[in-house]
Amino acid sequence: MSSIKSREPPPIPRPSSSVLLISPTNQTLLLHRVHTSSSFPSAHVFPGGALSATHDGAIPPVDSPLRHRDGPAYRLAAVRETFEECGILLATSKLTGRLFTDVGDAEREAARKNVHAGTELFADVLERWGAVPDTEGLVPCSRWITPLGLPKRFSTMMYIYFLPVGSQSPTTRSPTSSSPDPDPDPDPRSTPADLGSASAPAIVIPHPTHDGGIEHTAARFLPAHSWLALARQNRIILFPPQFFLLHILSPYLSPRVTSPSSPPPSLSALQTERSRLLAFLAERSGAEPSFAEACVSPVVLGKGRDGSRTTVLGLASPGVEVGTGRSGFAEWVVMARFTGEGPRDVEVRRRAEVYDGDGGFGGKGSAVL
């Protein structure tokens, strides 16, 4: 039986989209998944989910070169799934051209549940509200393909979406959040200094909310560095893609405040943070692709020495389904202990810092191994 199983083809990665949703004060939204979920149980994840031909349009077939490329169905799925999973609609008003928020809580929640249940088309909801999905506002930020050997696999297009600077920010803790995890580093920058000035747009963004426990039990904005701190303390579960991308965001968006008395940032300072991040994401470094072009299917490179349970994951491979011409990030590795409850002690390092040159990972800078 084992030899028969070994010849079975691996599961085909299911196309999906995910969004790193950035608040008006440059904090990042994560959702806490229910412990009974078949994917990422109990983990904190970005909003997102599988593409739907019914809602999102034609999905590239398995043998198409567009299957693992940014495209219309991936973008519409990113907008729809964000709406379903946290209640924030990434769409613009046909009348004003600005972010659409012109419905009450009850109407928004009813539409959200209908779309999730399949009793109403997402396109019909948008048309009724006079809204247009803001697919152009999505910034491609790498693709991740589940490695071989796992029973459920996804080809996930990651996007960043910036909610407008100057709009009213959600609080860092949603009123409906049931998360037991306190903020390890409360951020006094929750409100821009010049919020509400005459030049600020009159947009009130609804609080992110979970979906009533169907897939998530909490929805919360925090600075990227705060999410990473919670994961390093093993108080939340972050899988390698989420940890890696938050690691990339953290030096640019809402970087650590040195003193609680630090003044809140101006709108221009917040925008500068975003501009610097976008410039970094667009860069190519030697043979490394830009984040928009990168495709990553993590590969186990080795284990820590001396009986360590740490697994070292390489990020250079794009996966067997993608073929030639694509690559991930050769200079980075993700390290983690994989337990029954999920990855623990996750960290991102430069490959050169932990590779000892003798085919193992136990050299300079690798004390964690």
Model description:
It is a single chain. This protein is of the alpha+beta class and 369 residues long. The chain has two domains: 281 residues, Alpha-Beta Complex (Nucleoside Triphosphate Pyrophosphohydrolase); 60 residues, no CATH class. It is 23% helix and 22% strand. The chain contains nine helices and 14 strands. The strands form four sheets. The chain has a five-stranded mixed beta sheet, with helices on one face. Strand 11 and strand 12 form a beta hairpin. The chain is globular, with a radius of gyration of 21 Å. The C terminus is likely disordered.
Class by helix and strand content?
alpha+beta
Beta fraction: 15-25%
The number of helical segments is 9
Distance between the termini: 36 Å
Number of strands: 14
CATH topology description of the largest domain: Nucleoside Triphosphate Pyrophosphohydrolase
Short précis:
The protein has 369 residues and is of the alpha+beta class. The chain has nine helices and 14 strands. The chain has helices at 2-6, 53-56, 72-86, 105-117, 122-129, 224-232, 240-249, 267-282, 351-354, and strands spanning 14-22, 28-33, 44-45, 48-50, 91-93, 131-133, 139-145, 154-162, 216-222, 295-296, 299-303, 311-315, 329-339, 342-350.
Distinctive features:
369 residues, alpha+beta, Nucleoside Triphosphate Pyrophosphohydrolase, 2 domains, 5-stranded mixed β-sheet, 4-stranded antiparallel β-sheet, 9 helices
Task: Note the topology.
Elements: H1 2-6, E1 14-22, E2 28-33, E3 44-45, E4 48-50, H2 53-56, H3 72-86, E5 91-93, H4 105-117, H5 122-129, E6 131-133, E7 139-145, E8 154-162, E9 216-222, H6 224-232, H7 240-249, H8 267-282, E10 295-296, E11 299-303, E12 311-315, E13 329-339, E14 342-350, H9 351-354
Helix pairs in contact: 3-4, 6-7
Cofactor: Mn(2+); Mg(2+)
GO molecular function, one term: hydrolase activity, acting on acid anhydrides, in phosphorus-containing anhydrides
Domain Nudix hydrolase: 12-245
